[in-house]
Amino acid sequence: MDVVVVDNGSEDNSVETARGAGCRVLELGGNEGVSRAVNRGIEASNGEWIALVNNDVELSPGWIAELLDAVGGPSAGTASDLWFATGKTLNDQDRGLIDGTGDAICRGGASWRLGHGRADGPLFDTVRRTYFPSATAAIFRQSFFERIGGLEESFFAYLEDIDLGLRAAIEDLPGLYVPSAVAYHRGSATAGIWSGPSVEWMTCHQLLLLAKFYPARLMLRFLRPILAAQLLWATLAISRGRTVSWARGFWLGLRGFLRLRRTSAPIRRRGERLAGVLCAMEAEIARIQKATRWDTYWRWYFRLAPLAEKRA
Prior knowledge:
By secondary structure, this protein is an alpha+beta fold.
């Protein structure tokens, strides 16, 4: 097994620790953003399968073997049409709580780590197919990135794996959620929960996802949920005291919107099939919210844009 550690401008002893453990280290010399760092690691990796693991994640014993066995990788010795696998991620500080069981995006362009903050239990123990890996901790076929490219490098941090999932959906490259493969995540250990940069990036990148993937017809069809999702996100950010960060992110998103639409036209020409994927993902969000407890954001979103909830 070849372990590559990408040092993205760390200011602690990460490099020395990694080298002491026998890892190959790529030093970027500064913080170039999550997507650029991950892509450099992918480019430096060999083998049929690549595991992406954040620096704030602890893997349970057998994590890689569980995922490989589930998707028919080398340890299973069988062929498979699955392109990636992601497991159940628990909160490192309270290991009875879900950090995420894969990602989902609604019609309005807002995303959720499925199950985030809920108590672990049978609701999250079903193996399922998905197009949306969480790059926090997941394995991918090398050929997955050869088919659709690496992470979107214009996304400094946040939603880069949602972008990856939308491309996987367009190309019909499914993966698997494997709940028996458990990891523990200390969320937002680098940027901080509700930090100014996090809000700015999230705001900007939500708009850029709409620009990159939604054809005009889909934009008009989903105009109501788009307005609901983005207005609710603005309200939430402002209520957290992040008005300036939200405004800066919104402005950056608007500035990049037309440029990205011009350069991503080939993707959008194949984007009509996304309507069904988005509705299915939104239904999954509604199902888990209803079965556990409603977050204020999602309660209001489904009140303002109720179509997907009726289908759920």
